[in-house]
Amino acid sequence: MNYIIYFSLTIMILGLILAAIRFVKGPTAGDRTVALDTMTIIGVSGIVLSSYLFNRYIYLDVALVYGVLGFIGVIVIARYLEKAL
Amino acid sequence: MKSDYLKKLPLKTKLSRFFMHWFLLTLVWFGFTNTFAAQEVLTGLIVTAMISFLSIRLFTCCDLRILSPGKILYMLQYIFVFLIALIKSNIDVAKRVLSPSLPINPGIVKFKTKLNKNFAKMVLANSITLTPGTLSIDIVDDTFYIHWIDVKTTDPEQAYKEIAEPFEKILLKIF
Amino acid sequence: MSILEIIGGILIITGSLFLFLGALGIYRMPDVYNRLQAGTKATTLGAMSLILGVGFLMPGWILKILIIIIFIAYSNPISSHALARAMHLRKRFMFFKNEEIDAYKEIDKNNNPEK
Description:
- Chain A is mainly alpha-helical and 85 residues long.
- Chain A has one domain.
- Chain A is 85% helix and 0% strand.
- Chain A is built from three helices and no strands.
- The radius of gyration of chain A is 15 Å and the shape is flat.
- Chain A starts with a helix and ends with a helix.
- The model of chain A has no long low-confidence stretch (mean pLDDT 89).
- By secondary structure, chain B is mostly helical.
- Chain B has two domains: 5-66, no CATH class; 68-174, no CATH class.
- Helix content of chain B is 60%, strand content 11%.
- Chain B has helices spanning 5-8, 11-33, 38-54, 69-98, 118-130, 156-163, 165-174, and strands at 107-112, 134-140, 143-148.
- In chain B, helix 2 crosses helix 3 (38-54) and helix 4 packs antiparallel against helix 7.
- The radius of gyration of chain B is 20 Å and the shape is globular.
- Chain C has 115 residues and is an all-alpha fold.
- Chain C has one domain.
- Chain C contains three helices and no strands.
- Chain C has helices at residues 3-28, 32-57, 62-89.
- The N and C termini of chain C lie far apart (58 Å).
- The model of chain C has no long low-confidence stretch (mean pLDDT 82).
- At the B-C interface, helix 2, helix 4, strand 1, helix 5 and strand 2 of B face helix 1, helix 2 and helix 3 of C.
C-alpha cells in the first residue's frame, strides 16, 4: 500500500512543478494566482496523504486550516485586483 | 441588502432559521471532534447554539422546511446528477489537455435564470463551474455570464438549455 | 488486502492523476480563463477523490474527511469565480479562436448594479 502512496506523491510533485513554472512565468497576476490556488490544493492533498502515511490524525486539521487560508488568500487577491478591497 | 431586514421577519421564520443553523453547525461540530462522548456533545450543543444566535443575521439560505422528505430526496438526486456531471467534465478536461492541438473555441455567453433566491443562484453558479467546459464569471440580477470553452451557440435560450436546465429543474423544486 | 484498501488505492491514484492533469492544463492553456477552467475542475475532483481514498483506508477518520471534501467542493468554484470576474473587469487578454464572442463586454465596472 505504501508504494501506491509514494507513486501518487511523485505524480503530485510533478504537477506541483508544472504549476510552479506557471507561477514564475505567468504573464499577469491572475495567472500567478491560479497557479497559487492549484499549488494550495495539491498541498492540501499532500498533507492528507502524509497524515495517512505517518498515521497522525492531527495532520487533517493542518490540511483543513491550510485549505481555508488558501481560499481566503485567493479571494483577497481577487478583490484587490478588482480594486474593490 | 439592508442591515435591519431581520426586524421585519416574523418570529416563526426567525426561529425556523435559528434551528436550521443550529442543526447544520452541530453537524460540522461532530465532523471536527469526530467523537460522540457526552461532554463533547454537550459542549458542542452549547457553543453552536451561541454561534447560531449571534450570527443569525448572516444565515439567509434556508429554514427547517428544507428538511422535509421530498426535498431531501430531490437533494440526493441533485448530488447524483452533479457527481455524474463532475466526472464527465473531468474526462472532458483530460481529453482537451492531453490532445496535442488544444481543441478549444472559447467565448462568453449569457442566459437568464428562473431562480429568485440568492443562495440557489450561488449553488447553480458553483455547479455550472464544475460541469463540462463552463465557468461562471458573473451574476447580475438574473443574468448569468458564462465562459464556455467550446462555444456551440450564442443564443441565450439555447445556452440555457445546454448548460443550466438539468440543474435548475431540480433546484426549482428544492428552493 | 481488504476490499476497502483496494478501493482506497484506486481512488488515491485517480485523484493524483487528476491533480497532475489540472496542473498540466494550467501550464498549457493560452489565457487565464481557460487556465481557470482546467485548474478548477480537475483539481476539485482530484482532491475530492484522493481525500476520499484516504477516508476508505482509515474508516475512523471519515467525519473530518467529509468536512474537508465538502469545504473543497464549496470553496474552489467560488475562488475561481471571483478571480475570473476580477480579471475580466481589468480587461485582461482573452484568447479567441475564430471570432470574438464576449457577451460580458456590456457590463462596465462603473455601472455594475452590484456596487
